[in-house]
Amino acid sequence: MGTTEHDTWMLAGREMTSRIILGTARYPSQETLLESLKASGTELVTVALRRVNVGSADGTDPTNLYTLLTERGYALLPNTAGCFTAADAILTARARPRGAGRVADQAGSAQELVRRGFQVLPYTNDDPVTARKLEDVGCSAVMPLGAPIGSGLGIRNPHNIQLIKERANVPVIVDAGVGTASDVAIAFELGCDGVLMNTAVARSRNPVQMARAMNAAARAGRDAFLAGRMPRKFYADASSPSEGMISPLETS
Ligand SMILES: CC(=O)[C@@H](O)[C@H](O)COP(=O)(O)O
């Protein structure tokens, strides 16, 4: 029987325990960011290569985000957010080649990055055909959106996410659009391997508390998936047995 207790998974050759990946932008303070990461239980965090101030090149500046995160044991997932062309993404990923790379473009640029030796985790729309193409060119995972980035609208098309997951041979990570804990639970109930989120935690009234809720939701959703959902039925199915029921005629 499945259980979330020893439920590790592999992402780009790395064994992962937590199924949550958190973004590091938009937090009210660095302290809140660090506390939220801890509360979420995450091991892997994203940093935007183009937007973040990475501090000194050798990483010795103590306020450098890389230093703060790596000394706390977080693995970094650099992302190429802000790149609008394949050339941009490739240039940015090559300039700062720490950890795995994430590319904003689709199959062509992903293929080029794979060819150059990157582990590519592409953010994509929720189209099963696109997801298949990205897997076919050698991406280490596919990361379909739940909804537009920063929208908090939740998983708009659970059916597509489920189709992507059913056909994929690489991890499927819902990336973007999560608004609250129940969205995370749904992603895992659908069988997804991970959820990447930023705004829902960073822009909540209490990011640390929301991060804790996301952590609990991930475990709940994953447990529900492993437990196996009951089949949906179109009609009522009484839960008490009807055999031996006293009929109205017998009592009159
Ligand atoms: C943080 C990151 O890398 C993005 O994938 C994105 O910002 C996530 O989207 P949300 O902010 O909607 O969670």
Automatic annotation (TrEMBL):
Function in brief: Catalyzes the rearrangement of 1-deoxy-D-xylulose 5-phosphate (DXP) to produce the thiazole phosphate moiety of thiamine. Sulfur is provided by the thiocarboxylate moiety of the carrier protein ThiS. In vitro, sulfur can be provided by H(2)S.
List the GO molecular function terms. thiazole synthase activity
Q: Which UniProt keywords apply?
A: Schiff base, Thiamine biosynthesis, Transferase
Q: Which reaction does it catalyse?
A: [ThiS sulfur-carrier protein]-C-terminal-Gly-aminoethanethioate + 2-iminoacetate + 1-deoxy-D-xylulose 5-phosphate = [ThiS sulfur-carrier protein]-C-terminal Gly-Gly + 2-[(2R,5Z)-2-carboxy-4-methylthiazol-5(2H)-ylidene]ethyl phosphate + 2 H2O + H(+)
Which pathway, per its entry?
Cofactor biosynthesis; thiamine diphosphate biosynthesis
> What is the protein named?
thiazole synthase
Report the source organism.
Geodia barretti
Q: What is its EC number?
A: 2.8.1.10
Report domain Thiazole synthase ThiG positions: 11-94, 108-241
InterPro entries named among the record's database cross-references:
Aldolase_TIM, Thiazole_synthase_ThiG, ThiG
Q: Give the enzyme's main class according to its UniProt record, as a single word.
A: transferase
